Amino acid sequence: MRKKLVAGNWKMHGSIQANAALLDGLLAGLSDVSSEVLVCVPYPYLAQVSAKVQHSRLVLGAQNVSEHEAGAYTGEVAAAMLAEFGCAYVIVGHSERRELFGETDRIVAMKCAAVLAAGMSPVLCVGESLAERDAGQTKAVVSRQLSVVLDYLGVAGFAKMVVAYEPVWAIGTGLTAMPSQAQEVHAAIRAQVAALDPGVAEYLRILYGGSVKPQGAAELFAQADIDGGLVGGAALVAEDFLAICRAANS
Ligand SMILES: O=C[C@H](O)COP(=O)(O)O
After folding, report:
1. Class of domain 5-247
2. Is 239 part of the annotated catalytic residue set?
């Protein structure tokens, strides 16, 4: 049985004051949530959020990491630094990083390795663009993104990973994939891992991301291979995020 995970990706939003209010709202409403709940916050707020979520059920994560261990990489943040601040997860290869910051499949694989080496879990994002979906390439694109990481880490590395399927056309657009569309891709991801190691595949959590809102979340999370969500916009409003978390209660 896989424990559901609902992850909030705050992206480049927040302020010390707004974060405090959001976290107060979340912490006050977690009692009827049974899934694991993660907040992935901008780097400068790691210390603030880490202190605030200590001894609570909220888990802390980051949104990016350097593929390098340490050195002359101005502006970069190493995985060990994130671990020091209490991060348990790091989002890797979000489509915004791939598209806007030129992250290749290989860099994404190296980042996953860096996160694992520092004792944390990568949340590896994969997903197709609208043009790729229209061209019937969805499964091929997702399979390629996954196989580069599988080749680099070996399937054993996936024992501590989370995969997030995020169709790029659904991110921030209000267009959610239909539960059956998402389930089809999630099942293909699990099958690809199962072909290498059925045990790892059985326990691999695969999240759906892309305009997840309180309405419709329960139907998504009821799909056999959807193990939770990676939530952007709705993660910035405590009552919406909590409603999504409750929709993941099993
Ligand atoms: O990481 C989260 C995803 O990019 C989804 O964002 P969204 O819920 O605002 O569409």
Report:
1. alpha beta
2. no
